[in-house]
Protein: DNA primase
Amino acid sequence: MNTDPRAALAALIAALERHYEAAAASHGDDDPALDAATDGLTTAFDAYDDALFEAYDIATPLIVFDGDDEDDDDDFDDFDDLDDDEDDDEDEDDDYEEDGEDDQER
Structure:
């Protein structure tokens, strides 16, 4: 593809602007102008991500979710598992702090 990452970034910024304008003027989810701007934004992002990777072997930390895919909810289940693990870690920290306070009082 050999696209210049700087040019792809400029196209992505322009696509973000068009998407914002379409969203601000939108009258609902079924707005064809918003759909077109969303498609353009997705295409511009993919081109930027590819150009950045080809030029520098670096990818963006972003993922484009396809709204037509029903499996997207499964992707978020992984994040729910992470939240549960973090809560468990916080509980362990609380237990440690309580033990530490008891030791200081003695």
Summary: The chain has a mean pLDDT of 80. Residues 24 and 67 are 20 Å apart (CA to CA). DSSP finds three helices and no strands in the chain.
